[in-house]
Specification:
Blueprint (H helix, E strand, L loop, with lengths): L16 H11 L3 E4 L6 H5 L6 E4 L9 H6 L4 E2 L6 H17 L1 H9 L15 E5 L3 H10 L5 E5 L10 E2 L2 H7 L2 E4 L13 H6 L5 E4 L8 H9 L5 E4 L17 E3 L8 H22 L3
Parallel strand pairs: 1-2, 2-3, 4-5, 4-7, 5-6, 7-8, 8-9, 9-10
Helix pairs in contact: 4-6
Length: 286
């Protein structure tokens, strides 16, 4: 059997387009275990030896699938593994927001004793935008709180847990909105100033899906002007994140850790490696 020599990401963070291009040009790999780095048409067309891409995670919006198909590079992912971890994190972010847990924690650690009044998820209407694996997982877990759950997804007409409706109705009705859709491409953020203006002034917004789905500056303005009750982000347009949301009231910001549960990461990485080796055995006879 062929012996493969692994080359690891030297930056230990999400790579830029130029960084991944340089690494591929330098090392000329035949297989790539991918994260969320931008595998654009330009990147792929300069990866002369690349034969297989195996994505460690669910989404493939960072991969130019049309270019990969033209170049005869099969692309695999691990769609089921992250579902539980991201769904559980989303519920945790929701609880932090509506009860102000992180804000109170920071105050106590500063020696302050503030006890702001929070809200109950059980009394809320929760809006789920994107009702695939993770959106369904979030809805199933939040259903245990007894809240009303509405949602929208162009691929679904009905759902056992979620009351399906249109995007505008979700935005105008929900007390808490959580996003679980792929990244938008070429159309701007899904949640922009116009759509933020349709939301309830005390609503909460959670993005544990993809960076770029939300206009972060517009959310920061809305929070500072009291037009949103709070916002939680696990992913950002540019990472590591250091933008205006860090100075806003009632935000919970995490470092793209949706799938970072011990059990989940092990399962994802094993599946991704198995996908890569199986595909290489077929494509190059390894």
């Amino acid at each position: 059997k062929s012996q493969f020599k692994p080359v690891f990401n030297p930056y230990k963070r999400k790579l830029t387009e130029s960084e991944i291009s340089e690494l591929l040009a330098e090392h000329r790999p035949i297989g790539l275990l991918a994260g969320v780095e931008p595998l654009t048409s330009t990147v792929l067309r300069h990866a002369a030896e690349l034969r297989v891409i195996s994505r460690c995670g669910t989404g493939l919006d960072n991969v130019d699938l049309e270019a990969a198909d033209e170049l005869d590079i099969p692309v695999f992912n691990t769609p089921d593994a992250p579902t539980v971890a991201v769904a559980e994190l989303t519920v945790g972010l929701a609880l932090c927001l509506v009860r102000g847990i992180s804000v109170i924690d920071a105050a106590v650690k500063r020696g302050e004793w503030h006890r702001p009044t929070g809200r109950l998820i059980s009394t809320m209407t929760v809006g789920v935008i994107g009702c695939g694996r993770i959106g369904r997982g979030v809805a199933e877990r939040l259903a245990g709180f007894g809240c009303r759950i509405i949602g929208c997804d162009p691929a679904l007409d009905d759902h056992a847990t979620i009351e399906m409706t249109g995007l505008d109705n979700v935005l105008s009705t929900a007390d808490l909105i959580t996003l679980h859709v792929p990244a938008t491409t070429g159309t701007g953020p899904l949640i922009d100033r116009e759509r933020l203006a349709k939301m309830r002034p005390d609503a909460y917004l959670i993005n544990a899906a993809r960076g770029g789905l939300v206009d972060e500056e517009a959310v920061a303005e809305a929070l500072n002007n009291g037009r949103l009750g709070g916002a939680a982000f696990d992913c950002f347009t540019a990472e590591p994140y250091s933008g205006p949301l860090t100075d806003c009231p009632n935000t919970v910001l995490t470092a793209h850790v949706g799938s970072y549960a011990r059990e989940t990461r092990g399962q994802m990485e094993l599946e991704a490696a198995e996908n890569l080796l199986t595909a290489l055995a077929v494509t190059v006879g390894a």
